[in-house]
Amino acid sequence: MPAPPGITRKLLFAFGALVALFAAASLFALGRINEIHEGTHALQAASGRVRAALELATAVRDQYAHLAHTIILGNDSHARFHADARARVEALTRKLWEQAQDAEERAWVGDIQESGDALDRLYRDTLLPAVVSKDQAAVTAAHGHALELVATIQARADALARRFDASIGSFEEHVGAVEHASFLWAVVFLGGATLFAAGVGLYIGNSVARPVARLTEGASRLAQGDLNTRIPEGAPDEFGRLAAQFNRMTEALRAHQEQLVQHEKLAGIGRLAAGVAHEINNPLGVILGYVRLLQRKAEGSLAEDLKVLEEEAVRCQQIVEGLLDLSRPGRVAVEPLALREVCTEVVARLQESPKLKGVEVRVEGDAPAWAHPQRVRQVLFNLVVNAAEAASSGGRVEVRIEPQAGGGASVAVSDSGPGVKPEERPRLFEPFFTTKSSGTGLGLAVSQAIAHAHGGRIEADAGPLGGARFTLHLPPPREGA
């Protein structure tokens, strides 16, 4: 199955979408601004055409005014002014020709050009000579023709002005519509971008800030010594995996702390045992010697009392021996060992004693291991004896040997007894803790200490036979072993 998307990928996607949204809004705004700019430029051009048309009409009127003054004054004093006005009309006509946008407008400008040329020729060739020669009839005829030409130019100039003015209205309408649409879309984009940014912020708060706060709080509790601190793992992203790793770390720290406490307990007991074991063993040996000597001569109830004394003295010796086992060095010398052979040997020796009376013991599987033979036999002896006592007469005990990955091995001892209560499991390997009326409470503690000396451990859980199962885990050999 593909790995679920991580928080990093989600954040990159969210920020990328946010950037893309703002980029789209910016591109849209730039496009609209460019469109408004082009519309404004076209509006200015249309306004320039209207001004040129109106100026042309004014220049034609000026030209006619100078023509009329020539008639009124009856001389050529306004000929120079008429020429200036004519030059002005020609310049404006060329400008309109350049600004014409269709065939009709160019036709109107053409009419203005022809009428202007005709008016100029009429003035120079007919009207001005008639005025100078005082030919009134020619002046009147030329004046009438001049009025027709001026009217034609005025009509075409007015038509162009109206056309250009209409285009100004359409451009203004278009620019106004673009501005209105741009404003609405800007509100939509900016509002959407703001909402999206708020959503990204909430997402970051939920996906980053809260997990970081939980990690910080968990680290603070851990620093205060709370080794049971756990962080909700949540989604399977980076923070979820970090929370899972944090939980595994705290669990490992808790287990390590428990091991340290257990080792300190065992070390304290060992130091105590090492200090007093010989002092206790000596009087116990004397007591046992005298008790056994007296047993040879005693009869009846005295013999029974001496038997009880002997059993209790032997029990004291077993306790001292267990304490001495706890005081021995942690590391042991290991060598290759066939576990099935060792297990079979332990079971065979126990079957010769009353400890396995009426209990069926079966050994299955095989695996090699690196271990101290005598210490492993001691552990297996304790586990099989405990299992047989739990199963009692008519019960079953199974010893299963299995190889482990990486070169280690495990030996699981299961029984058909009542099992171990859940509330008792955390204390099973504590010194002097026992669920049996006759036990010393040192067997499992010593066995766990031996397992730790090998770099392994003993675990207790429910077994396949209905009772308890104690599993000895032996690791692969250490380098240089």
TrEMBL record:
Primary enzyme class: transferase
Keywords carried by this UniProt record: Kinase, Membrane, Phosphoprotein, Transferase, Transmembrane, Transmembrane helix, Two-component regulatory system
InterPro entries, per the entry: HAMP_dom, HATPase_C_sf, HATPase_dom, His_kinase_dom, HisK_dim/P_dom, HisK_dim/P_sf, Sig_transdc_His_kin-like_C, TCS_sensor_his_kinase
Stored CDD domains: HAMP (cd06225), HATPase (cd00075), HisKA (cd00082)
Catalytic activity line of the entry: ATP + protein L-histidine = ADP + protein N-phospho-L-histidine
Limits of the HAMP domain: 206-258
Domain (Histidine kinase) ranges: 275-478
EC number: 2.7.13.3
Major localisation: membrane
Stored SMART domains: HAMP, HATPase_c, HisKA
Annotated GO MF terms: phosphorelay sensor kinase activity
Location in or out of the cell: Membrane
This protein's GO CC annotations: plasma membrane
Cited Pfam families: HAMP (PF00672), HATPase_c (PF02518), HisKA (PF00512)
Transmembrane spans: 183-204
Official protein name in the record: histidine kinase
